[in-house]
Structure formats: structure tokens, C-alpha cells
Amino acid sequence: MRSHKLLNIYSNLLPGLEKVYVFPHIERSSRFNKYMSLLYRDLLKGEESSSVIINSASFFSPSIIVRRWLTEKSVVHHHWFECRDIISLLNAAWKLMWLFIYRLSGGKIIWTVHNKYPHNRKLMRTNSVLRFLMARLAHRLLVHCAEATRIMTSILRVPPEKFSVVEHPDYQVIRVPRETALRYLRKHYSPGDILDRRPFFLMFGYVARYKGNTEVMESFSAVNTEGA
Q: Which of 67, 84, 125, 140 could form a cystine bridge with 72, CB 3.0-4.6 A?
């Protein structure tokens, strides 16, 4: 179980662990991507350990360091880490500053490296510096497969021993009969009888420009036209 493996990583990094601070906020980030809620589901329910508290936020509060000074045994686990504009750049710089102080105070830091590079390809040089610094601040880097360790070792310039693999959580899939699915699509997405008159395709996941949705639709339309 992924949550059990994650808890073992936390506990091995800091024996006697009391609290894990997770960034970004689990519930807010799960509105468009269920990754965080699926990963922490069992820990939040207390099914894996009733002694470790999971606390999530979007903004790093200096109170985390104060509690660390008051001997709270905590780990900070940050998912993703990038900037897209001046606001997110300031937020990243703020986090790095406090994470540095947090580490000096004896806190442990984990970073899950989700992507080889930021998907939006903005501020690439700035992101390269930020991610380089984050990789050195973190005591442990998590990735989703062994191949990602090989790739990110050279990009972040850290030894492979610093990585641990925690597989991507499974997205829950409910299979339904074809006619049931068509009725749902007609009701929620398709005006009139368009599904009965024209071919259609489904794309799963959050719709974003970097995923090439437009290119896929153009290719699909071209193939469909040629076959007409």
C-alpha cells in the first residue's frame, strides 16, 4: 500500500515523527487532480497510523519553524515545485527561505518530483535554479518509478541514493455498460443527437494546453475526414 510505504519513509527519516506538513493543500489541489487526496486518503482517515498528524497548506507559515523549535518532530513534504509568474516566483522564494531555516532547526524535508520539467515551459532558467536548490534542501526525493530516478539524477545533479520510489496512486475506475455511458454523455456533454450522427473520442484527465489536446483533436479530425 502506497500510504504505508510513504509513512515508512517519513518514520525512517525522523523516528518518533509527530506531524507531516504537506504542500500544496490536499483538498484544494484535488479539485482538478485527485492525486493528493488518493495518496493521503488512508493517512487522513487514520487507517495507517493514529499517531502521525497530516497537516496541509498552500502557503508556508513560519509557525511551522516555531513549533519545530518547541521540539515538535515534523517532516515537510512538498509536491511539485515550480513558478509560472511573479506571484508564484515570490511564493517559491518564500518557501525556500523558510525551508532553509526549517532544515537548520532540525526539520526534515521531502520533495516529490512529479515532472522532468515544468509543463508550461515558462521561466525555465528560473525554475532550473529553484529546483536545483530544492533538491539540495530536501533530505529525500520521491519519484513514481525507477526510470524517473535515472532521469532526474542527472537533471537535478544529486546521487541516486537520495531518491525513493512511491508509485502513483491508482485512479478509481467504474465500468458501466456502453448504453449507460452514452446516456450520461448525451445528458451532460452532447447537445441533441450528435453522438448518434458523428464519431467521438474521450480524453481523460484535466484539460490543459501543455497536454496537446488541440493537436490530438486536429489529428483526430484529419483521420476522420480521410476516412469519410
A: 67
